[in-house]
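=== RUN LOG ===
request id: a7f3
mode: sequence -> structure
chains: 1
length: 347
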Amino acid sequence: MKPLLSALAVLEVVAFVLTLGYVVVALGSYILFGPTVGDLRAARDAAIPAEARRAGEELLVEGRKSRVGDIRTSAAAAYVLPGGPGAFTEALTRSFAGHGWAVTWRAAISSNLLGACRGPLVANASVGTANALAVSGRTDAVLLELQVLPGVCPASAPPPRELVSLLVVASFVGFLATATYARVAGLRGRGETLRRSGGIESALTAFAWVPYVLVALRLGPELEPPGWLAVVGMVLALGGVGFAIWSVLALGRHYDLELEVHEGHEIVRAGPYGLVRHPVYLGIALHSLGAVLATGNVLLAIGTLGVTLPLFYLRAVTEEGMLRAELGDAYGAYARSVPMLVPFGPR
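=== RESULT ===
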């Protein structure tokens, strides 16, 4: 079992290093070259009315410089709606407004139906044009094209997805670095380990890198959060890690990434341990929920609610049993006065 855990620990380090490197490069590319085709497709798919269906293939162009001028990054696809182009335009206008786009113009009778913008992105919807016919082969299909066209737009863009990914991944890597340092430093100043948990709640933590690979590679479906919700999510993600790091430092030599009890183990009531008995889990739980809100990743949401949070609770319960068995009535008194995981919550 021990060789397996050591191998998983090495895999975890490698996975986090590669993931962090990937999101750094992705953000650097965004800063230098602007939104990618993937960014445009995600913004377009989020705004398309649910009842619309795509007709034909999509046209994707990655921006680059050429001899005749700059070629803009663009993503285009044709859609049909049972009510026709007029119904599609009405539904798209409402959807754009709901996703923070500014509708800049609409035409009652024209092949060009409407235009909208958000940050550096510009959208145009048309019907009956050569491009619309070429893509869909239908005269009633509406071609929606998004382009990167930096300029003056009254609607600001939400935080770039690349920035969100970097903040989520880098903040957790920062926590792991702090936790690892605290563990190494603590081993020098404490007694021999008396109890150690070897259950599933310990083994599964070796796969902590999996959610961050989902975030970095944008795997699975994504729901585009409103700009304000993405900001709230990032604040929770960063604040949760900050709270967890504070908790690690407050616990001092008693902190360990493993579930264990050692000689001279003491009850710490200082700082966050006066609010809840397991503030590290609370902080990382807030971080995880913030990552879900900031990214809108559906697989991440399922994993957080179905695996991460239950795992934290299982670790907390297991740790409680070990501490009660070793520290006896002293820990019982602490548990009666301080909530377990939620401030002012049940004890």
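=== NOTES ===
The chain has two domains: 2-28+160-337, 37-148.
The chain has a mean pLDDT of 88.
=== END ===
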